[in-house]
Amino acid sequence: MRIIEGAGEWRSPGEAVNDWVEHLKVPDLSVGTYCIPAGGVDDQSPHTEDEIYVVTAGRATIVTPGSTAKVGPGAVIFVPAGEDHRFVDITEDLALLVVFGPAYGSRAPR
């Protein structure tokens, strides 16, 4: 067993556009926190792994090619591998607990 301290907690990205911290990585999954300040820009690109976001703080809209949804604390979002997605209209500092399966980057071309 392992307690993952700080997972899902808001951290200011400082001078950066946003903040990504990976807390745990094992072959079958990884867990991290992704933070974007209010009014910020989500500059991510599609991932090679499936992912689940849990909104722990803040409000925004998530946009994919097929849908748009407003999200806030408690929302759980599944994004399949390869699907373009981004958070827009970030009205409150956004903190996301992110779970990748398998681990982030493990399916990336070598």
From TrEMBL:
It comes from the Bacteria. This is Mannose-6-phosphate isomerase-like protein (Cupin superfamily). InterPro entries: Cupin_2, RmlC-like_jellyroll, RmlC_Cupin_sf. SUPFAM superfamilies: RmlC-like cupins. Residues 34-100 form the Cupin type-2 domain. Pfam families: Cupin_2 (PF07883).
